Amino acid sequence: MQIHDLEKVFLDKIEEEIKIEPRDWMPDAYRKNLVRQISQHAHSEIVGMLPEGNWISRAPSLKRKAILIAKVQDEAGHGLYLYSAAETLGTSREETINDLHSGKAKYSSIFNYPTTSWADMGAIGWLVDGAAIINQVMLCRTSYGPYARAMVRICREESFHQRQGFEILLVLSRGTAEQKAMCQDAINRWWWPSLMMFGPRDGESTHSDQSMKWKIKRMSNDELRQKFIDMIAEQVKVLGMTLPDPDLKWNESRQHYDFGEIDWNEFWNVVKGNGPCNKQRIEARKNAWDEGAWVREAAAAYANKKKLKTNNGLEAA
Amino acid sequence: MMIRITKQYYGDFGESAADVSANAPKEIIQATSNIGHDWPLWEVFIRSKQGLDHKHVGSLHAADAQMAIENARDVYTRRMEGVSIWVVESTYIHASNPDEAESLYDPASDKAYRHPTFYDLPDAVKHM
């Protein structure tokens, strides 16, 4: 078949909502686009363990500690589902991880903000995971089969993350004056970075058009952001807290909340590596990887030795 | 160093970020690439409860079969999704070629009589 015939078959499948599977023909740009998006999504899960991992030893109760461990473990799992999906496109795991460590690949900028109080664990679960879920629910319908399946699995597990976060804030919001202040402070610090998670405005988002045509993405950045704001603006009332945006107001004619301008300078700055924790996060990742090297080597050596023994045993028999 | 990133958002970052690697300090790249090669890839199949088939759920890297099963337990059964795990090294999976799907499945496409709905029976006939 000629390339343009193959491309037509591919586009027909996209049109008819038939998933693309690893061994199907796909345009190089589609493959490249997916590798970039999926691996960066995977890196976000892995780096996302760091800000929360820091709080496991400082959780205020055994219950909260157990919950936080379970959540961080889920995130490791989610990273794995996504790395596996990226691998089906022909990139090796090692290459993908090296790209994170060398700075070639990016991860979600949200994880470059520091977690300065216990209330941040609540705000991250509610706002950061909440924003991630909005994006991930959409991606359950993405056109690439392995990515969609990974997302379905992740969404199933992720909803507890958001609920436990909201519950942390709910408890604080009903506590002492100091605890209430902690709660409001965490919301103030995490609100705007959470809105930035959806990316630049639609007009400035260069890959979006193609991603929408290929049905990798099914909704635009601004649509997803609006959906998130409408949801959170209602939920914050239950906490008796406020969102740090004086322009946030229900718009009867749009049937959506209007909101203030995002600080795009801050957004681009953090993207470019100048966020409060960019360096620490990558350092922590690289240390974990380097310090675990002997474990990987020992396991490989042990597996090799066992294989040799089995082979020798077979020959002798 | 000029870093040109045209676009970045959650799970979808600008690919011109690739430019960065050329400028990254050499020792970083070396430090992360002298670890050795990936452990083999394994495909994981889980029986969700007694009486059901094992079903493919995903894949993972592991040094050997035992580690693959233990990792599969940690990754794919954290919420009691399984009662039995199979792992097989991915290299031993042989797959049909999607490009040949048409000819491969063609023999089945014109045999409607293999389906019960092909047969018109009077309504009086029950339980058939």
From TrEMBL, chain A:
Where along the sequence do coiled-coil regions lie?
Answer: none
Q: Which GO terms describe its biological process?
A: phenylacetate catabolic process
Origin, by domain of life? Bacteria
Keyword presence, Isomerase: no
User: Per the record, GO CC terms?
Assistant: cytosol
Q: Mind listing the GO molecular function terms for this protein?
A: phenylacetyl-CoA 1,2-epoxidase activity
InterPro entries linked: Aromatic_CoA_ox/epox, Ferritin-like, Ferritin-like_SF, PaaA, PaaA_PaaC
The alphabetized UniProt keywords are: Oxidoreductase
Record's Gene3D superfamilies? Answer: 1.20.1260.10
Q: What is its EC number?
A: 1.14.13.149
Uppermost EC category: oxidoreductase
Show the NCBIfam families listed in the entry: PA_CoA_Oxy1
Q: By what name is this protein known?
A: 1,2-phenylacetyl-CoA epoxidase subunit A
Q: Which organism is it from?
A: Limnovirga soli
Source taxonomy: Bacteria, Pseudomonadati, Bacteroidota, Chitinophagia, Chitinophagales
Automatic annotation (TrEMBL), chain B:
Gene Ontology molecular functions: phenylacetyl-CoA 1,2-epoxidase activity
Q: Which keywords does this chain's UniProt record carry?
A: Oxidoreductase
Which organism is the protein's source?
Limnovirga soli
Name the top EC class: oxidoreductase
Q: What is its EC number?
A: 1.14.13.149
Q: What protein is this chain from?
A: 1,2-phenylacetyl-CoA epoxidase subunit B
Q: What is the lineage of its organism?
A: Bacteria, Pseudomonadati, Bacteroidota, Chitinophagia, Chitinophagales
